[in-house]
Amino acid sequence: MMLTPEHSMAIQNALGSDVMMQLDDVVSVMIKGERMFEAMERSVRWLDRSQTAHQNTSKQNLFGIIQGGLDPAWRKESLKDMIARDCPGYAIGGLSGGEEKADFWRTVSLCTDHLPPTKPRYLMGVGYQVELVVCSALGCDMYDCVFPTRTARFGSALVRTGQLQLKNKQFLEDMAPIDKDCSCMTCKKYSRSYLYCLLHEDTTGVILLTIHNIAYQLRLMSDIRDSIRKDLFPEFIRTFFCTLFPDKNYPLWAIEALQSVGVKLTE
Questions:
Q1: Residue 141: how many other CB atoms lie within 10 Å
Q2: pLDDT tens digit sequence for 67-118
Q3: CB neighbours of 146 closer than 8 A, spacing ≥ 6?
Q4: Positive or negative, the Cα torsion across 158, 159, 165, 169?
Q5: What share of the chain is helix, strand, coil (3-state, %, to 5)?
Q6: CB 224 within 8 A of CB 133
Q7: 266: pLDDT confidence band, cut at 50, 70 and 90?
Q8: Do β-strands 156-159 and 162-165 pair in parallel, antiparallel, or remain unpaired?
Q9: Distance in angstroms (rounded) separating the CA atoms of residues 88 and 12
Q10: How far, CA to CA in Å, does 50 sit from each of 15, 36, 88, 260?
Q11: 222: left (phi > 0), else alpha (psi -120 to 50), else beta?
């Protein structure tokens, strides 16, 4: 099947997606030179075609996708072209592909600095909890990632202190829930011991872990939003990092990224 911008719009219109994504030309963020520039330019042309083909602009929001790799000049060029198309929201694409974390956060920051502050900023392919907190501080609003479901398939449960590997024998007789403060169905009904047994015998364990991990991510984002509304986000960030890194061995990239927006993790 040849997927064109027009076909992509027809599928998403038929699905009734609240947020629709333009078809873009995706290349590895590690690629440099002419191929990256070609992908960036083609994505702009495909956005034009996507906007023309979009049949339900009053109810479905078509986002443009910012490209340009790790080159600041190309990112700015892509930003200029995409913003000129006046989309309801914008996605930051082409990251989380093996680049250094220092390059990652600086590219995110560059994009959020230039995107319209009144429109949603969607950071594609990002889902680790440290990245969610830091990138929210940098100005991102929305995320997507396979991480919470993929890590569930390996028996890992997401918690404030990191992850619990529930396939490990230490949980065989542990009758506590994954997280006593979590209100998801899994934590209300099942113990770590029960999940340990299921994960070794039945795929139902993976489903229950998936339910918890998605609930964890949703609760994290809800807590971020609430702290912003209450003007307590810097305090939330510091508490989050102290809980996840009790030895205060914070990732250098996170320290630098947060410092760039006035949040100090260390004195």
A1: 15
A2: 999 999 999 999 999 999 999 999 999 898 889 999 999 999 999 999 999 9
A3: 127
A4: negative
A5: 50, 10, 40
A6: yes
A7: confident
A8: antiparallel
A9: 16
A10: 16, 21, 13, 36
A11: alpha
Cα dihedral sign, 114-117-118-120: positive
Name every residue whose Cβ is closer than 8 Å to that of residue 165 and which is 6 or more positions away in sequence.
Answer: 154, 155, 156
In the block, residue with structure tokens 């040849």? 2
Mean pLDDT, rounded, of the chain: 95
Record the tokens describing residue 211, joined without a space: 């339910």
Q: What is the pLDDT of residue 267?
A: 64
- Assess whether pLDDT exceeds 80 at residue 1: no
**Helices 233-244, 204-229: inter-axial angle, 10-degree rounding:** 140
Ramachandran angles phi, psi of 218, nearest 5°: -65, -40
- Looking at residue 8, its pLDDT comes to 97
CB 22 within 8 A of CB 5: yes
Angle between helices 34-53 and 72-84 (to 10 degrees): 10
CB-side neighbour CA atoms (13 Å) of 105: 22
Cα maximum dimension of the chain: 60
d(CA 24, CA 187): 40
> Would you say 23 and 34 are in contact if contact means Cβ atoms under 8 Å apart?
no
The pTM (predicted TM-score) of the whole model is 0.94
Distance, CA of 112 to CA of 127 (rounded, Å): 18
Q: Render pLDDT for 161-195 as a digit per residue (tens, 0 to 9).
A: 999 999 999 999 999 999 999 999 999 999 999 99
**Residue positions counted in the chain:** 267
